[in-house]
Amino acid sequence: NIEEKYRGRIIYSNTTCELNLGPLVKEDEGEYTLTVVTRQGKQQSSQIDLEVLG
C-alpha cells in the first residue's frame, strides 16, 4: 500500500524491484522498508535510512 503523501512521487519496477521516490522533501526522512512478495509466496525485505540534505 502507498500512503497518500507519497502518491504521484513513487515509481516502482516489478521487473527489478527498484523503488524511486521524488522529489524529496525534509518530511521524507526516516527508515523505509520495501517488502516484495513473489507469486510463490516468497518474501524479501530491504531497509534503508533516508536523510534529506539541503
Explain what the structure shows.
It comes from Cirrhinus mrigala (Mrigala). This is Immunoglobulin I-set domain-containing protein. InterPro entries: Ig-like_dom_sf, Ig-like_fold. The chain is an all-beta fold. The protein has one domain. Helices cover 0% and strands 41% of the residues. The protein is built from no helices and 4 strands. The mean pLDDT is 93.
List low-confidence stretches: none
Mean pLDDT: 93
Number-wise, the strands total 4
Strand order of the largest sheet: 1-2
Shape: elongated
Structural class, from secondary structure content?
mainly beta
Topology order in helix (H) and strand (E) letters: EEEE
Rg over C-alpha atoms, rounded to the nearest angstrom: 12 Å
Tally of separate helices: 0
Fraction in helix: under 10%
The total number of structural domains is 1
The largest sheet is: 2 strands, antiparallel
- The portion of residues forming beta strands comes to 35-45%
Organism: Cirrhinus mrigala (Mrigala)
Protein name: Immunoglobulin I-set domain-containing protein
InterPro entries: Ig-like_dom_sf, Ig-like_fold
Tags for this entry?
4 strands, 41% strand, Ig-like_dom_sf, mainly beta, Immunoglobulin I-set domain-containing protein, Ig-like_fold, two-stranded antiparallel sheet, 54 residues, elongated
What's the gist of this structure?
This protein is mostly beta strands and 54 residues long.
Topology:
Layout: E1 10-12, E2 19-21, E3 30-37, E4 43-50
Antiparallel strand pairs: 1-2, 3-4
